[in-house]
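Data card: per-record layout.
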Amino acid sequence: MNKKILNYILILLSVVLLGISIYYFATSFSFYQDEYGTDISFDNDQMVLMLSAVVLLIFSIYKLVADNKNTFNKDSVYISFGIISIVNSLYDFGAFFKAIAKEKPVLENLDYCLSGIVFGVLFAYILVSYLLESKKNKTI
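The structure for this 140-residue chain is written out next.
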């Protein structure tokens, strides 16, 4: 496939993901007001998904522009997917340990722990790949 078509597909995918996450984030708002004050809450999971979609959209737009100018830097792949994986990993572990601190059953929140492990392993893989690539190119 042509690089431009793949870039446009990546942009479309990230825009769709961003649109879905914004929709669910906007519909997750709850507003409560009483004599003690106002409470506005929202779904943090959707906020993290929206942040990941924004990073992916920025990367895909950069990739499209850089490919057109033939100035694409491979480090941007490591940086963008590293940011996505570390943010998701830290959020998932934080949600899991917060649930444990509130004495909720571990099995109810095990999905946070498992996805945190998956994103942590993904971040470790990205970091090791970046370091090996840098060592091969002698840029460290």
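Known properties of this structure: The first strand starts at residue 30 and ends at 34. Helices lie at 3-27, 44-69, 75-101, 110-137.

See the next section for split statistics.
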